[in-house]
Amino acid sequence: MIKTKISFHDQIARNKRNSILLIIIVFVVMIILGYVISLAFSPDYFFFIMILAIIISLSYILITFYNSEKIALASVNAKQADPILHRQFYNAVENMSIASGMPMPKVYVMESENINAFATGRNPQRSIICVTSGALKKLNNQELEGLIGHEMTHIVNYDIKFVTLVAVVVGAVAIFSQMFLRSLWLGGSRGRKGSGGALLFIIAIALAIIAPIIVKLVQLAISRKREFMADAGAVKLTRYPPGLIGVLTKIKKETKSMKVPDAVAPMFFSDIAKKRMAGLFMTHPPINDRIRILKAM
Which of 107, 109, 133, 134 is nearest to 121 (CA)? Predict the structure, then answer.
């Protein structure tokens, strides 16, 4: 029998440390990428390229982070839930807010026949929980509370802040890499002559391609780990493992994939693609693994 022991205070602290560490890693990757690119063009361009990269990446991070809720909701065309029409949803969120001791998040609904949900926001005071219309139609009260308890745990653990930071910095690295690769079409390869310059360009191109993949893999690995923690947190809040097991079982039977932007896919309760490549590129743990662990609680 699997015993699960979770310290939520330790998890919050760990997520904060991971946030800082990830930002550092990404900036190091960007500096190395910028350095190699500047050498590939000309050493004279180093400071110009680095200053431009830092300004663009910092601007992107700040603008995206402080507008993360609006961007996430707009990307899936979510609408604010109606207190009367979606009374069951409101009640479930209120119950889980009381159980967790957190302020009640704002609630939104997105149109989709699939069962899914996500939480977003910079902190518990500015948090949002969004569920699909399919979840409201197909889940009973206990299952809906299990789903909301999972998302509420993401809020309690500051996962919403961490995942937002991850998505933003992954996007920043991708933008920086694309800027360089597109610049090659504008004659950037004329900056250096000889075999040394050609080698530097090959290295720069390789880094521009590999860097976004590396940070993306980090994002997905963290996303999978946090889902197990949120499942356990939902059980702690609801005191009823069959509720969340029921949600996962119903999701397992669905055959259609959801269509949402890749940037927000890791935020959802379960993998939005039914035929996603397994292994390192999965946004979520396999449903069978999640069900097995929940049954052992």
Answer: 107
- Measured over the CA atoms of residue 107, residue 110, residue 113 and residue 119, the dihedral's sign is negative
Residues marked active site are found at 151
* pLDDT attached to residue 43: 59
* Residue segments in the chain with a per-residue pLDDT below the cut of 50: 1-4
β-bridge mates for residue 79, sequence order: 109
Closest by Cα among 146, 168, 155 to 126: 155
Nearest residue to 104 (alpha-carbon basis) of 87, 92, 115, 122: 92
Q: Give the amino acid at 238.
A: T
The alpha carbon torsion through 42, 43, 47, 52 (nearest 10 deg) reads: 20
Which pLDDT belongs to residue 1?
42
Angle between helices 141-156 and 241-253 (to 10 degrees): 100
- pLDDT, residue 93, reads 95
In the β-sheet with 117-120, what is the strand arrangement from edge to edge?
79-80, 106-110, 128-132, 117-120
Asked if 68 contacts 118 with a C-beta cutoff of 8 angstroms, the reply is no
For the four alpha carbons of 163, 152, 230 and 294, in that order, the dihedral sign comes to: negative
* pTM, to two decimals: 0.75
Q: Both tokens of residue 22?
A: 């990830």
Torsion over CA: 276, 277, 279, 282 (sign) = negative
Instruction: Report strand pairing: 128-132 vs 79-80.
Output: unpaired
